[in-house]
Design a protein that fits this description.
Layout lengths: L6 E2 L5 E2 L5 E2 L20 E3 L2 E3 L20 H5 L16 H15 L1
The structure holds zinc ion.
């Protein structure tokens, strides 16, 4: 991800691409505590460490099947009154009426 790879020597010394060397202090030598949580993907925002949420990946998520209101237009031609959930919607009335109007125009 980074354009400047950081090499880590066996003794823990980091060598940056510009030649700078830095060896992190041992935990007992440190003056300040480590504030970064040991969680992958933690982000520092305005002085607060934010942890990633436990979410399902997008491809594992399931959505209910969506059916358009215009399905009621096609169901209007059924010999019996359709009782599917699309036809029970209040917005289905408009499409049923349109189908009836077009049938009248054909006659
Ligand atoms: Zn229907």
């Amino acid at each position: 991800m980074t354009h400047h790879p950081i090499k880590t020597l066996p003794d823990g010394t980091r060598v940056y691409s510009n030649g700078t060397r830095y060896k992190p202090k041992a935990p007992e030598e440190r003056v300040r505590r480590v504030r970064k949580p040991a969680v992958e993907g933690a982000v520092l925002w305005q002085g607060t460490w934010l942890l990633p949420l436990d979410l399902l990946p997008l491809e594992a998520r399931q959505w209910p099947e969506t059916r358009p209101d215009t399905d009621a237009y096609e169901h209007a031609s059924k010999p019996r009154r359709c009782k599917c959930d699309v036809c029970k919607r209040p917005s289905a009335k408009r499409w049923k009426l349109q189908w009836k109007r077009e049938q009248r125009a054909l006659l």
